[in-house]
Write a structure and sequence with these properties.
By secondary structure, the protein is an all-alpha fold. Helices cover 70% and strands 0% of the residues. Helix 18 packs antiparallel against helix 19, helix 19 packs parallel to helix 21 and helix 40 runs antiparallel to helix 41. It is globular. This is TPR_REGION domain-containing protein.
Length: 801
């Protein structure tokens, strides 16, 4: 017992010594030994200790309860079922004993067993009051089990029987509508769906389900449905927005005109986001532009949407501002930043105190490649209490590599007396960590980048550990549906996009460090200086957190501190890469990027069968992906090396690879160069695919092909300028960065680089990445100070142009 107390006081070494001494003197102390193991997150060892303790005290409720918690945490479901059965035999009068035993059957997929146990338990239970929420949750949990078991009729009968005791009316109606639809009772399902729409007329899913029930034969019947709904819900926006997705011709123009007019009149800032999906349909973006430009002209001339509108329909001055706001977003999306800036400047001149206008102007500059962030700063200064604008400004600064400025902005909304970055990391702010990791990687500070990636991984691991606190709580409080959802979420937690982003950054960095260890980059004095300054700054400011650390829970599990220098100089970078890779391959089976990452890692580890598995899976997902093409060419080049890589393989491995070559390439004898040339021929007009193909051409043919590759890249840019390449700034920027670093076509002379930079600058005049040294120095020295003022007329001079 003393050892257990010392453990909770943070004196781990003394605690372990005392517990081991106690175990030698009394073998019944295995339970305490297991508690210490659990505190160290050594769950397998803790379960072994609990099982040893049960040999001496087989009926000890506390040991059985602790063992069951570990078993469900580790998803040892057969053992969990047996343990819960023992608890039920010992305490049949406890609610948690019955619910836990039924839950074990549910997690194992035995729905009939789950329902049998719960029905037996319900025989002894009655609602304690008219509003018994725990009993209501139990009933809804039983319905959810029936749904999973495919027992639709039984679930509907159960709902009807216990309808008076169920408190969650919305969920009940949703389930009832679904069950009636599946059982063919369409009219009853339609009635329930209309009731749900009356409760929440802005729920898009309800309208989709109603359409499925009514089965309209064409746009005319679909429109009739929404026309009827508009009569019953005249203030709802969704019945007016959804028809725009399927209408065409004059009907579309009419409905879009009405929708836009009402939205502009109300001043809906997110209007462009609401109709942005229409831009993917041919011709609809042009219709929207024609209508909105007409509004702009008429509002400026006569204050109405149309010159033929009655004088009584005059709009307030703010309507014109929102029209300009929409047009600026429209032009920015189409890759026309000059027009977008001209329009947003008109809006700023009209209303210089509207925060959204400066935020949009900063976003336009950022999308055009200018990361100066001055207009985001101005937006933030207009409303210093707006956390969202502050976070957007900090995010843009991070992307621009201005980490200290970003931290100053973030410090305005973090706890006083702490380092903003560390506070956000403690709060598991994922966007901050992933953006920092990407920015540090671009700056060449690989240790800091890896540290952020590992922090993301630790946060996800902590989320998995945090479910431990809910295994008992949810059974006591009867939040059973939420509990099952949580368990299933935790099982696939690392499929989340934040983890995928961090894992991909970490894998790319470790692969780079494998190819070029940090010692080989030691002559990069700027990178070394930046990392040293960053480390010194953090070390100096960590003193502010000592008091906070002293007040933290002494018994809390503490992992080893992440050292950026140690992470960047690891002697096993591929092992670290595999640690990040495994969850992606297991939890993202439909991601071609995950399979390509797996191929790159296993190629570095020289694992041909695992490479083959990734290729086969990736091709079944998206055979046209350019990254997959690169993997296929590299694999084909390996198989073509009969005297090298293929000769080193074991005969069974070699035979299996040869067997699958036709399924991958269409023939077992195709040459890598011919395969890549065919891909390049098909990629005409696609800049991203062309870049991949040219990269592989250089890999296959060597430095002798550099001139041809550069000429082809220049031609692709020229051809792309007429095919909408203005919207591919990121792809062009990545190609230029890799070309400049030598990763694309080796070392390229300054003249060729300058010619390509000039060509890119003509395509993206606002992108600072493509500025000449003189222009870049001038832009860096210029401090943009915005002095908003109201001007008359529709003429504007952009101060940055």
């Amino acid at each position: 017992m003393k050892g257990l107390i010392l453990s909770y006081m943070g004196k781990k070494d003394e605690a372990w010594e005392l517990v081991k001494r106690g175990l030698k003197n009394n073998l019944k102390s295995w339970h305490v030994f297991g508690l210490l193991q659990r505190a160290e997150r050594k769950y397998d060892e803790a379960m072994k200790a609990y099982k040893c303790a049960l040999r001496f005290e087989s009926d000890n409720m506390q040991i059985l309860r602790d063992l069951s918690l570990l078993q469900v945490q580790m998803r040892i479901l057969d053992g969990y079922r047996d343990t819960r059965y023992q608890l039920l035999l010992l305490r049949p009068q406890q609610k948690a004993s019955w619910i836990g035993y039924a839950m074990s059957f549910h997690l194992l997929g035995d729905y009939d067993g789950t329902l049998a146990i719960l029905k037996e338990y319900c025989k002894t239970q009655k609602p304690s009051s008219q509003y018994d929420y725990e009993h209501s949750e139990l009933l809804l949990y039983m319905v959810s089990v029936m749904l999973e078991a495919g027992q639709q009729q039984a679930a509907l009968d159960f709902l009807n029987e216990h309808d008076a005791n169920i408190m969650d009316r919305t969920y009940t109606k949703e389930v009832r509508a679904r069950l009636c639809s599946e059982l063919g009772r369409l009219s009853e399902s339609e009635t329930v769906m209309r009731e749900l729409i009356s409760v929440n007329p802005e729920n898009r899913a309800y309208y989709a389900q109603l359409e499925e029930l009514l089965k309209p034969s064409g746009p005319v019947e679909r429109m009739a449905i929404y026309a009827d709904l508009r009569k019953t819900h005249p203030r709802a926006a969704m019945p007016r927005r959804l028809p725009l997705d399927f209408l065409t011709g004059d009907e579309f123009v009419k409905e879009l005109d009405n929708y836009l007019r009402q939205s502009f009149h109300k001043g809906v800032p997110q209007l462009f986001r609401l109709v942005e999906g229409l831009y993917d349909q041919p011709g609809k973006a042009d219709v929207a532009l024609r209508l909105v430009e007409g509004y702009r002209s008429s509002l400026a001339d006569c204050g109405r949407f149309g010159e033929s509108d009655p004088a009584s329909s005059a709009e307030p001055p703010s309507t014109l501002v929102w029209v300009w706001y929409y047009l600026a977003q429209h032009y920015s999306k189409l890759g026309r930043p000059a027009e977008a800036l001209r329009v947003i400047d008109l809006a700023i001149e009209h209303t210089p105190t509207l925060t959204e206008l400066y935020s949009l102007k900063g976003q336009i500059y950022k999308d055009a490649g200018d990361m100066s962030c001055e207009y985001l700063k101005e937006a933030q200064s207009l409303d210093t209490a707006d956390r969202y604008v502050n976070s957007v400004c900090a995010r843009y600064l991070i992307q621009a590599g201005r980490m200290e400025e970003a931290e100053q902005f973030l410090g305005r909304f973090t706890r006083e007396g702490t380092i903003a970055g560390e506070h956000l990391a403690d709060m598991q702010c994922m966007w901050y960590l992933t953006e920092c990791a990407a920015s540090y990687k671009r700056l060449g500070q690989y240790g800091q980048a890896l540290k952020k990636c590992h922090e993301v991984e630790r946060h996800f691991n902590e989320m998995v550990e945090d479910q431990f606190d809910f295994h008992s709580y949810c059974l006591r409080k009867m939040t059973l549906r939420a509990y099952v959802s949580m368990l299933r979420l935790e099982d696939k937690l690392k499929a989340h996009p934040y983890y995928f982003t961090a894992a991909r950054l970490a894998i790319d960095t470790y692969l780079m460090l494998h190819r070029r260890p940090l010692d080989a980059l030691a002559d990069d004095s700027e990178r070394q200086k930046a990392e040293q300054e960053q480390a010194a700054r953090l070390a100096a400011r960590k003193a502010h957190n000592k008091e906070h650390d002293a007040d933290s829970d002494a018994n809390a599990f503490k992992e080893e501190a992440l050292d950026p220098e140690k992470l960047a100089r690891t002697d096993k970078p591929l092992d670290q890469a595999v640690t990040f890779l495994r969850p992606l391959l297991n939890l993202c089976p439909d991601s071609v990027e995950a399979q390509c990452l797996g191929f790159d890692v296993y190629r570095a580890r020289q694992r041909p069968l695992l490479m083959l598995r990734c290729l086969l899976k990736a091709k079944s997902i998206d055979a046209s992906h350019p990254w997959l093409h690169a993997c296929l060419v590299r694999f084909l080049a390996m198989t073509a090396d009969q005297q090298g890589a293929m000769a080193a393989m074991e005969p069974p491995v070699r035979a299996l690879i040869v067997q699958h070559l036709p399924s991958l390439f269409g023939s077992a004898s195709v040459a890598p160069k011919a395969f890549n040339d065919a891909f390049l021929a098909k990629s005409a007009g696609n800049f991203v695919n062309t870049c991949w193909g040219l990269r592989l051409k250089y890999e296959l043919e060597g430095s002798t092909s550099q001139s041809a590759c550069l000429a082809a890249l220049t031609a692709a840019l020229s051809a792309g300028s007429a095919a909408g390449i203005e919207r591919q700034l990121e792809a062009c920027s990545n190609a230029y960065i890799e070309l400049r670093s030598g990763d694309l076509f080796g070392t390229v002379d300054a003249d060729n680089l300058n010619r390509l930079r000039t060509q890119l600058h003509d395509l993206f005049p606002y992108a600072r990445e493509f500025f000449s040294p003189t222009d870049a120095a001038a832009a860096a020295a210029a401090v943009v100070k915005i002095q908003p003022q109201v001007l008359n007329g529709e003429t504007s001079n952009n101060g940055d142009e």
